[in-house]
C-alpha cells in the first residue's frame, strides 16, 4: 500500500485551487502546508491533501511531467465518480473519457478520466466489488 505521492506541478497555487474543488467530493478533505525549511537540506515546500490526519497526496513546485504519473482516486459510488468528473471539468480539467463502465477491465469497474491543469491523468474509480460487505 502506498503512503504518499509527490506530484510536481507548474503552479502550486493554481493546482491547490483545482484540487480543493475536486478532492473533497472524494472525501479527501484535509489540507496541510509543509515548509521545506523544516526538513533536511533541499527539502521542497509541499502542499498536502488527505483525510483523518493522514496526508498522502502532495504537490510541489517545479516542472510538471504529466506523462510520468497516472493517479486513480477511489470513489465510493458511481454518483461520486460522476460528481468528481463534473467538478474537475468545471475547475479546468480536460476530459479523457466520460463516466461509465470500463468494460475492458471489468463490467463493474466504473470510472471517468480527466487531465488536470498540468496535464496529469486523473481517474475517479468505483469498483463495486471492493465496496461489498
Radius of gyration: 15 Å
CATH superfamily: 2,3-Dihydroxybiphenyl 1,2-Dioxygenase, domain 1
According to DSSP, the number of beta strands is 8
The tally of structural domains comes to 1
CATH class: Alpha Beta
Provide the residue-averaged pLDDT. 96
Describe the overall structure.
- With 133 residues, the chain is an alpha/beta fold.
- It has a single domain (5-130), classed as 2,3-Dihydroxybiphenyl 1,2-Dioxygenase, domain 1, CATH 3.10.180.10.
- It has two helices and eight strands; from the N terminus they run βαββββαβββ.
- The strands form two sheets. A four-stranded mixed β-sheet has the order 1-4-3-2. A four-stranded mixed β-sheet has the order 5-8-7-6, with helices on one face.
- The protein is globular and about 50 Å long.
Amino acid at each position: 500500500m502506498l503512503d504518499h505521492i509527490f506530484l510536481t506541478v507548474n503552479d502550486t497555487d493554481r493546482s491547490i485551487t483545482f484540487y480543493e474543488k475536486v478532492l473533497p467530493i472524494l472525501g479527501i478533505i484535509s489540507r496541510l502546508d509543509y515548509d521545506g525549511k523544516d526538513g533536511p537540506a533541499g527539502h521542497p515546500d509541499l502542499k498536502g491533501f488527505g483525510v483523518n490526519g493522514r496526508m498522502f497526496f502532495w504537490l510541489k513546485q517545479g516542472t510538471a511531467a504529466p506523462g510520468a504519473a497516472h493517479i486513480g482516486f477511489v470513489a465510493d459510488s458511481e454518483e461520486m465518480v460522476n460528481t468528481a468528473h463534473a467538478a474537475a471539468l468545471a475547475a479546468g480539467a480536460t476530459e479523457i473519457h466520460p463516466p461509465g463502465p470500463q468494460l475492458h477491465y471489468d463490467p463493474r469497474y466504473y470510472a471517468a478520466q480527466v487531465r488536470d491543469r498540468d496535464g496529469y491523468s486523473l481517474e475517479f474509480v468505483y469498483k463495486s466489488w471492493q465496496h461489498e460487505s
